[in-house]
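User: Show me sequence and structure for the first protein, then do the same for the second.

Assistant: Starting with the first protein.
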Amino acid sequence: MATMAMAGQGMERMQTMQPAQGRAAGVAERNRQMFEKQRSRRRGPTPEMFFAKHIDNTRIVKADDPLRKREMRRFTVAMVFLFAFTMTYVWQHMESIEVGYKVEAQKQQVEQLREVNRQLRLTQAQLSEPERIDRIAKQLGLDAPLPGQVVRPDGAIAVSAPVLAQNKGLNIQQ
């Protein structure tokens, strides 16, 4: 309590004293201005105290805490495993979605190719229809071949008369 009273008196003395030169003068002036600002907001009879302390912590060296270091190492390892597990899960999920899209695209492609195949078979059937071929041949002035005009690729002459089955060159022994 006595310290507070002395601090309050010290503040009043600081206000009445002439500010010193240099850095101390700037600090004292700043403290006086802060005190004046806070005086209007202050509630009750409690005096405000300001202490200017210049602490030099440059020579302090923080000692290593092996327990904290071990805890942080364990935490880091746990977080790395959690991150790796999560990234593996996300990667697999994205790959499965991509594979699903590829499967659907290939199903559509197969369906399109089936439709094209169906159209080509229909076109082939229409183009190879015997009545159509006869009609085009007659438009071009072609007639039905006479016997002996048709030559097969193996060199034999096609005969339109009935042929009896014959055994040529095969010797079947009984």
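Switching to the second protein now.
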Amino acid sequence: MRISTGLLIVAVAVVVAVVGLVLVQRLVPTERRKQHNDVAGFIYAVLGVAYAVLLGLMLIAVWEKWDAAEATTTDEANELAGIFYWAHALPQPEGRHIQELVRSYARVVVEEEWPLMAKGRSSPQAWDTLDELRGAILGLEPTTGAQQARYTEMLAQLHDLGNARRERLLAAEQGLPPILWVVLILGGVITVGFTYLFGLQNTLVHLIMVGSLALVISMSLFTVAALDYPFQGDIHIHPSAYENDLERFHESKLSDL
């Protein structure tokens, strides 16, 4: 979600909440609402705690998802770098070819796949490059014990690279189920709307309280929406790990490119 759109929604939510209170105050006298303050306060305490717990759990869930997606991205870049450096010790021209494929894969992920992930898609070229890299490594025929050790390590890194890629793409596609958004939004509306039942002598104080509550809830929902898809919107995970890999590949003395 774009930050400008989110802030606009937050502002509209606060205005609607305040306007709603003004309408209720005009339609229902304060004295009439004050008669139910004790009962309404007890019910609102339960309602508020229940919604706060739900909203807090959703915030934790999307943050953990964001953190896991970022860790997966770093793991994928690390495995890619490991294959690149191991390839330097392989017989030529096989080692050089593997390094070329590794760098091509990193470049495609940064330049092509990252923008596609913002739309919940992946890059066919990245898949093709990974398959070509897998074929090049599986086609190696180590002849010495040292080469066999390097080959085994590269196979493990290749396996982890594929797993990390799939996890990254799943994180880009999957968000909170729609039913949870219905519960979150409807719960927020009910939580704010319930405050209209209270009767306060000072109208300004009541308006400030309702506006503040609507602001906190709408900002929390905006945060959940912004973190729900880690690779979309203005707030997203950047391909810094892959960019660092490309920079190191270019500068490293272990590069045969």
